[in-house]
Amino acid sequence: MASHPVSGIQHSLRAGDYEACIASVGATLRCLTFQGRDLVVPFGADEVRPSYRGATLAPWPNRVVDGIYTFRGVERRVALTEPTRGHALHGLASWLDFEAIDKGPSHVTLAATIVAQTGYPWELGLETTFQLAADGLTQTVRVHNRSDEPAPWGTGPHPYLVAGPGLVDEWSLELPADDVLTVTDDRLIPVSLEPVETAGAERFDFRRARRIGQVEIDHAYTGFARDDDGFASVRVTAPDGTGVAMTWDTACPWAQIHTADKPDKAVSRLGLAVEPMTCAPDAFNAGRYDFDAGLIELGPGASSAASWRISAIA
Predict the structure, then answer these.
(1) Cα pseudo-dihedral 143, 244, 53, 165, rounded to 10
(2) How far apart are the first and last CA of the chain?
């Protein structure tokens, strides 16, 4: 019998009006509340994590189309983990059991190793820190390439944000991004990068806050408006004005937005996935596309970091 819940060892954090629970499997944000109000869609400690909810994604976020990519002239194949669409989804770290290497009342740092394997023959050391403070929960992901060759790299989180009671349809979204990556309807394969107003303003243009309504989105955005310090921010608000914001640094030029549409209406559109990413979908095949996919080539012994923050709108 397991000595801990199926989602792994639980790490409870608290700071001011915020509380968070981090599960060791996938370095997953399992719950986050402000004054008792959910800011992300939670799940039970003894529940297998549904839909990558809150997982840390590495060494790529989003998809590798067909599980096939070419890096530095060598074609490689990784396991297909999205069988319904035939892609490799969200990297290799989401089911690793991370070990706590530093912990306090308001923070925890978790570590794991991505071992060299078929399709991804590089060893990476991962660390991620979750830190609660007065401005919310900040997660930082750090990677170190332990291999003798450059490795392709990307990362991002997968929270489903909750603005308040009800479904996504009732909330308003402010998404200050100029461009959206269009995809095929059936398999979500990238097609082209287009201005939000020409790709379909009613569906994609949320540069001014407005109600989400019935639109369905599962697309990556870029071209974000940023403040003087280089931070971009997405805001989701309920009709009463409460809500949640997600903010990230310049390490993430992309963000996937997903209205969480599911065939089962009981679990559909419960939260809005906001996934800051260091690279575009299918970035491991960056050479196929006519836009900058942002793929990081992590040199031998090199390190990289990215961070994002979730905070309440009171």
Answers:
(1) 170
(2) 43
